[in-house]
Amino acid sequence: MKAYVALALAAPMLVTAQQSMWGQCGGIGWTGPTACNPPAGCSTLNPYYAQCLSTTGGATTTRTTTTTSRTMTTTTRTTTPATTTTTSRTTTTTSRTTTGNPPTGTGLDALIKGKGKKYVGFCADSGLLSNAQNAAILQAESGQLTPENSMKWQSIEPSQNSFSYGGADTLVNWAVSNNKIIRGHTFVWHSQLPSWVSNINNKATLTTVIQNHINAVAGRYKGKIYAWDVANEVFNDDGTRRSSVFSNVFGDWTFLDVAFRAARAADPAAKLCLNDYNLDYSGAKLTNFVQLVKDLIARGVPIDCVGTQSHLVVGNGAIPSFKTTLDSLASTGLEVQITELDIRTNSSPSSAQISQQVRDYTSVVSACMKTAACSGITVWGVSDKDSWVPQTFSGQGYALLWDNNYQKKQAYNGFVTGINS
């Protein structure tokens, strides 16, 4: 870690940019700055992710120098008396061992980092962060936070050019102060969209609006976001393009080109993702999603990752073949992220359903662990008490890893088994 700082100090003309505290500074596929602004140093957490972290009390560099003396005796014989020459040679070997800051936390995130993945994350917002029980679990178990609602367009720009950053700022500040990375969620989505955007019917106007919105939001949090869901849920379940103000006004997929390019310009260091749900089945939606991503890459659109939400149902037949789903997404050549995992069942499940839920969590997590491109898993909530499921699916719930009283469920053990698989 200190080697990066030393290089920056010794040869400043070679360094074109430096990351601030908490920013990414390395990892598979990383093309951004690899040096950090002092007093931060670049700490490798796993092959996918290195982060600028404080060097104070956290990193040590040990230099060991070994000196070896060798004496060589050479005897030269001629017709005259033998001549003996003695040569003394000294070799000095220096080895350097650098120990970086270890991953923080003692729970799922630390466990998955130890297996070479990037993070276990959870969604949250200001209300959940102010809940001491919920916050304590996030501090101990998570390495990443995703805003559940506070960064959606309706929340953050309800009126044109009038931004409401309070909720998003709360989440970002909490995450940064607790050494968590952040997935930004989301820019272009057909839902939770203010009416002033939905009512636009001119392509040039909508292009400017998309660019301005992304520039403002991504620019505000530049350097603090690991990855953005630039676009969300752009497909219908039958694999056709979803009807939205974006697809209808543009008439094709090029609204994605506008959004991804705007995001890259606003925050060049952030990874840019396309996210969708019901990609868990081998069908037209998954096939067309993968093809769209390949098309975006082919025409030079900056995209770094794909996300499968993974809102699943206990006992679903697609779960045992989840590895196949991840392999299909990995065929894009991009980083794959499980972005909104929960596995719901009846609100009052039977013991058989609980046991099946444990197996299902194991299957999904294990599939990620066995897929090199799968970098991390975000669970869509901490406690069943705060889950979106009961409000959306009548009679269903029990989808998360902690119960209504913030006690670990058997599903937590299934998640751990999956990590260790």
Automatic annotation (TrEMBL):
InterPro entries, per database record: CBD, CBD_sf, GH, GH10, GH10_AS, GH10_dom
Sections of the chain in a coiled coil: none
Chief location category: secreted
GO molecular function: cellulose binding; endo-1,4-beta-xylanase activity
Keyword Metal-binding included in the entry's annotation: no
GO cellular component: extracellular region
Localization in the cell: Secreted
Signal peptide (UniProt feature, chain positions): 1-17
Active site, renumbered: E340
A GO biological process held by the record: xylan catabolic process
Record field: catalytic activity: Endohydrolysis of (1->4)-beta-D-xylosidic linkages in xylans
Keywords: Carbohydrate metabolism, Glycosidase, Hydrolase, Polysaccharide degradation, Secreted, Signal, Xylan degradation
Segments of this protein annotated with the region Disordered: 60-108
EC number of this enzyme: 3.2.1.8
Record field: compositional bias (Low complexity): 60-107
PANTHER family: ENDO-1,4-BETA-XYLANASE, GLYCOSYL HYDROLASE
Protein family according to the UniProt entry: Belongs to the glycosyl hydrolase 10 (cellulase F) family.
Protein name (record): Beta-xylanase
Organism in which the protein naturally occurs: Drechslerella dactyloides (Nematode-trapping fungus)
